[in-house]
C-alpha cells in the first residue's frame, strides 16, 4: 500500500517520526514535504498530498500540522477526500471503520510521539465496515 505524507512546520518533526515508522513497516511512502521547521502554509501541503490520492497514485494519506485542524479542513475541501483529525486510538479506528477516512490528520503540537505512532498503526490496521456506513457516506458523496 502506498501512503502519502505531508506536513507544515508544526507537524514536520512528527512527520519524520511517522515516516520512519512506515518505512520500518515496509509501506511505500511519498513525502510531499515540508522539509524543515521553517514556516510554511499548511494548505499548500494538504493540496499536494491529496492530489496523489485523487490521481490514484496513493491509497491513503497522513497530514500533520500543529493541531491537525488546518490540514483536515484543507484536505476536506476536496470532494474525494475524507480526512479525519484523530487524537486517540478510538477515533482513529472509527474514522476507518465508520467513515472510511482516506486521510489521517494529526496535531504535532497536541499529541506526543508515542501516542501518534500508535494512532497511525491503529488507523492503518482498521478496515471500513460498509453497510449502513456506506449509505451515510453516499449521502455526502453526490
Ligand atoms: C501553524 O502555526 C499552525 O497554525 C498550523 O500548524 C496548524 O495548527 C493549523 O491548523
Question: Short description, anyone?
Answer:
With 142 residues, the chain is an alpha/beta fold.
Task: Tell me about this structure.
With 142 residues, this protein is α/β, with parallel strands linked by helices. The chain has six helices and five strands, in the order E-H-E-H-E-H-E-H-E-H-H. It has helices at residues 12-24, 42-54, 69-75, 89-97, 113-125, 132-139, and strands at residues 2-7, 28-31, 60-65, 83-85, 103-107. A five-stranded parallel beta sheet has the order 2-1-3-5-4, sandwiched between helices. The longest helix is centred in the first third of the chain and has 13 residues, at 12-24. The structure holds D-ribose (RB5). D-ribose is lined by residues 8, 10, 42, 65-67, 69-70.
* Helix and strand run: EHEHEHEHEHH
Mean pLDDT: 98
Distance between the termini: 27 Å
Shape: globular
Number of domains: 1
The CATH superfamily label reads: Sugar-phosphate isomerase, RpiB/LacA/LacB
Strand arrangement in the largest pleated sheet: 2-1-3-5-4
Detail the poorly predicted runs.
Answer: none
Number of helices: 6
Protein traits:
44% helix, single chain, 5 strands, 142 residues, five-stranded parallel beta sheet, alpha/beta, Ribose 5-phosphate Isomerase B, Chain: A
List the helices and strands and how they pair.
Blueprint: E1 2-7, H1 12-24, E2 28-31, H2 42-54, E3 60-65, H3 69-75, E4 83-85, H4 89-97, E5 103-107, H5 113-125, H6 132-139
Parallel strand pairs: 1-2, 1-3, 3-5, 4-5
Helix pairs in contact: 1-5, 2-3, 4-5
Amino acid at each position: 500500500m502506498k501512503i502519502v505524507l505531508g506536513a507544515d512546520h508544526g507537524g514536520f518533526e512528527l512527520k519524520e517520526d511517522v515516516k520512519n515508522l512506515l518505512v520500518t513497516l515496509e509501506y511505500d511512502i511519498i513525502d510531499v514535504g515540508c522539509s524543515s521547521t521553517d514556516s510554511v502554509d499548511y494548505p499548500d501541503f494538504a493540496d499536494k498530498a491529496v492530489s496523489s490520492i485523487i490521481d490514484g497514485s496513493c491509497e491513503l494519506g497522513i497530514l500533520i500540522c500543529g493541531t491537525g485542524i488546518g490540514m483536515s479542513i484543507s484536505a476536506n475541501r476536496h470532494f474525494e477526500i475524507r480526512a479525519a483529525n484523530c487524537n486517540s486510538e478510538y477515533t482513529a479506528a472509527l474514522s476507518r471503520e465508520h467513515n472510511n477516512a482516506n486521510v489521517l490528520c494529526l496535531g504535532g503540537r497536541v499529541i506526543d510521539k508515542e501516542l501518534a505512532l500508535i494512532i497511525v498503526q491503529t488507523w492503518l490496521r482498521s478496515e471500513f465496515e460498509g453497510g449502513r456506513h456506506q449509505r451515510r457516506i453516499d449521502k455526502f458523496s453526490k
